[in-house]
Amino acid sequence: MDTHPTMPAQDRPKRSGIKLFLIVFSAVLVALLVAIMVARWWLFPSQLQPVELRASEKLELNHKLRALGYQQDAFPEVASAEALEPQAYSEDGASREVRFKERELNALLAKNTELASKLAIDLSDQLASARLVLPLDPDFPILGGQTLRMNAGLEVAFRERRPVIVLKGVSAWGVPLPNAWLGHLKNVDLVEKFGAQGGFWQAFADGVEHIEVRDGEVFVKLRE
C-alpha cells in the first residue's frame, strides 16, 4: 500500500511554474554575465602590447632609416661600432626602393613615442589599418576613466601613375562613425581631392613613383 502523500492537483502547476521561472532566471543571469564580460573586453580593452624586435631586426631597421637619410639610429644599442668616415655625396647606384615591415613600424612607435601601448598598425593587401586605445579623462561624461577603442582604415594603392590614398572609415567601439562626422571624406581619394591645392599631398604624390601595401609590409619607390 502506497503511504506517500499525493500532491494536490492544484499545487502541481505552481511547482512547474516555479521550476520554469528558475530555469529562465538562470539562463538570463548567465547571458547577462557573459554580456558583461564581452563588453568589458570589447568596449574597454587593456593597453596594447608594444612590439619588441630581435637584435637582427633592429640592425636591419637602422640600415633602412639611414638609407632614407636618418643618421641617428633608432636602436643605437645594436648600431655598428665602425667609425663614421667622411664621404662625398653621390646618388650613383643608390636604391630608391624602401620596404618597411609591419613589425618595424610598430617597433618604431614603441621606441620613439608614448603611443606604444595605445596605437598599433596593421598592413594587409592595399589596406593600412590603425587601432587606438585611449584612456578617457575621469571627468569625461558617463565613460570617464574608461578606455576608448577606435579603428581606422586607409586604402593605399597606385593607379593611373599616381598614389591613391582613400579613407575607408573610422569606428569607435566597433561602431562606424557617420561620414558627416568625418568631414565627408569617407571613400574619398585624399590625393585627388587635396593634391591640386599644393602642400603635403601634392608633394607626396610628386615624390612617389610607386607605392604598395602588402600583407605585413609597405613598399615605396621614390622618384628621382
Characterize this entry briefly.
By secondary structure, the protein is of the alpha+beta class. It is 31% helix and 26% strand.
Q: Please state the overall shape, judged from the principal axes of the Cα atoms.
A: extended
Low-confidence stretches: none
State the strand order across the main sheet.
2-3-4-5-6
Number of strands: 8
Main sheet, how many strands, which sense, barrel? 5 strands, antiparallel
Radius of gyration: 29 Å
Could you tell me how far the N terminus lies from the C terminus, measured between alpha carbons in angstroms?
A: 106 Å
The structure class reads: alpha+beta
Approximate helicity band:
25-40%
Average the pLDDT over all residues and give the rounded result: 75
In DSSP terms (H or I, runs of 4 or more residues), the helix count works out at: 5
Order of helices and strands: HHEHEEEEEHHEE
- How much β-strand is present in the residues? 25-35%
